[in-house]
Amino acid sequence: MTKVLIGLSLGVLLGYLYPVTINLVYPKLISVVLLVALDSVFGGLCAQVNKNFSDTIFITGFATNALFAAFLVFLGDSLDIDLYYVALLVFGFRIFKNLAGLRKHFMKNL
Q1: CA-based angle 26:27:33, to the nearest 5?
Q2: Which of 8, 57, 69, 82 has a C-alpha 20 to 30 A away from that of 95?
Q3: Are 73 and 28 in contact (CB under 8 A)?
Q4: 70: domain range?
Q5: 42-58 confidence digits (pLDDT tens)
């Protein structure tokens, strides 16, 4: 869990010290990638709490999910279908599932 918290703290600190201005040319893609990142963070926290965290699975899961979500957004825009809603629903559901797992774990330990 310390690796995750150190990485998260370092990312927040770097984002605060070196702010990046993002030109929202493609806001659908940015919203999906942000949800993928949040899903990875909460999934990593949940795995760490359950004592089965793997760096390799964390990195490859983030990269695979981000690429597939970006592909869905691209394909949806090419076909003029809002497929990014699918990615938003799936990753939103996974975030809440991971949060529920974290809550259950911490409630057991009270």
Answers
A1: 100
A2: 82
A3: yes
A4: 2-108
A5: 999 999 898 898 989 98
Give the number of domains in the chain: 1
Reported as half-sphere exposure (CB side, CA atoms, 13 A), residue 84 has a value of 18
Give the residue ranges of DSSP H helices in the chain.
2-17, 27-49, 55-79, 84-108
Cα–Cα distance for residue pair 107/35, rounded to 1 Å = 26
Distance CA 8, CA 16 (A): 12
pTM over cut 0.90: no
Helices (H), 50-83: 55-79
Length in residues, the chain: 110
Structure tokens at 25: 């040319």
Torsion sign over Cα 16, 22, 27, 33: negative
**Spatial separation of the C-alpha atoms in residues 81 and 72, rounded to whole Å:** 10
